[in-house]
Every structure is written in structure tokens, then in C-alpha cells.
Design a protein that fits this description.
Layout lengths: L14 H8 L3 H23 L6 H14 L10 H35 L9 H20 L3 H12 L4 H8 L3 H20 L1
Length: 193
């Protein structure tokens, strides 16, 4: 086993560095982080939206997964390519989680706003109640901050899809989903209050 030493970017991805990474050598791990952190962050921003607060976490999870799985790196691709692949998978995993959370929160909100039952004899009363709920929703949305007002208006009052909202706001779809999730959570809190 070679003695630990300081590594520089010039060492990447030479065999001694990979060997040191497999031994979980601290200086080698630090060199890997210094060399690739910023590039991995750019990849995360590409998928999640520029300056997404979760991008840093994705990069951390990428590096941790790489350190744990270093024995699985066979060298058939470049080290950065392998790391970038892990990062992309982490981004997709986060986006899937966000989509599931958004769907759940949308269902919660729809349950709060949906009629309890539709009785033919009470259709007029139900329509009046739906109109009141729509006004209530408008009031709750109106009480939100401007960014939330805009995205909630587009989604729930105007009925636009995430893709349409992305085009209107000119932001990545992941950013739309993230903002909508946060704004819906606040809206649900207002609705329950």
C-alpha cells in the first residue's frame, strides 16, 4: 500500500489517485472534491434549475455515493463521466420525489376544495358552494406573496400544466415543480387555518 500524500488536479484520474480513493485516503478524496465539485454543481443546476437550493445536496450525495462505490469504478469511462452519471441519477431521483410530493399536495388541496358529495337535489347549493370555495381559493392565493400568487394563479385558477407554466415564467420545469410544491404547502396551511 502506497503512503498517503497530497494530490493535485494534475493527479486526476491517474491510477495512484484511484488506488488512494479506493483506500478512502483523505487527501485523495479532497482532491476529487476540489477537482469536480463545481462541474457537478453545474450539472445539478442544469437539471434542477439554476441556484436550486437542493443542488448542493445532490453534489454531496453524488460524492458520497462515489466514495462508497469507488470499488465499482472499472475505468471504462473517465472518472468525471462516472461521477457525472451518478449526479444525473441523483437529480432524476430528486425530481421524481418532487413530482410525487407535488402530486400528493395537489391531491390534498383538491380534497380540501372538492365537494363532499354531489346530490342531484342539491346541485344548485353545491354549485354555490363551489363558487364560494373558488372565491376562498382566490382569497388564499391573494394573501400569498407575489411569486406564489403568480404560480398558484397559473396552476389552480387558470388551469395551466407545469409545462405551460414553465414557458410562461421562463424557468426550468424542475424549478416550477419546486416552487409550486412550496407554494402549495403554504396554501394548504392557510386553508387549514
Amino acid at each position: 500500500m502506497a503512503p498517503d500524500r497530497d494530490y493535485t488536479e494534475d493527479d486526476l484520474p491517474e491510477a495512484p489517485l484511484l488506488e488512494a480513493l479506493r483506500r478512502q485516503d483523505g487527501p485523495a478524496q479532497e482532491a476529487l472534491v476540489r477537482a469536480y465539485r463545481q462541474r457537478l454543481l453545474a450539472t445539478a443546476w442544469h437539471f434542477l434549475g439554476h441556484q436550486d437550493p437542493d443542488a448542493e445536496d445532490v453534489v454531496q450525495e453524488t460524492l458520497l455515493a462515489a466514495f462508497k462505490g469507488m470499488d465499482g469504478f472499472e475505468g471504462r469511462s473517465g472518472l468525471y463521466t462516472w461521477l457525472n452519471h451518478i449526479c444525473v441519477n441523483q437529480c432524476f431521483s430528486l425530481l421524481r420525489k418532487r413530482r410525487r410530493a407535488l402530486a400528493t399536495e395537489t391531491e390534498d388541496l383538491e380534497r380540501l376544495l372538492a365537494p363532499a358529495s354531489l346530490d342531484r337535489q342539491a346541485q344548485e347549493a353545491e354549485q354555490a358552494r363551489l363558487a364560494r370555495r373558488q372565491e376562498l381559493l382566490k382569497g388564499w392565493i391573494g394573501a400569498m406573496g407575489a411569486p406564489c400568487q403568480r404560480i398558484l394563479q397559473l396552476r389552480f385558477l387558470d388551469g395551466h400544466s407545469l409545462a405551460e407554466i414553465k414557458d410562461r415564467l421562463k424557468v426550468p420545469q424542475g424549478t416550477v415543480a419546486s416552487r409550486l410544491r412550496r407554494c402549495q404547502a403554504s396554501l394548504i396551511e392557510k386553508a387549514r387555518a
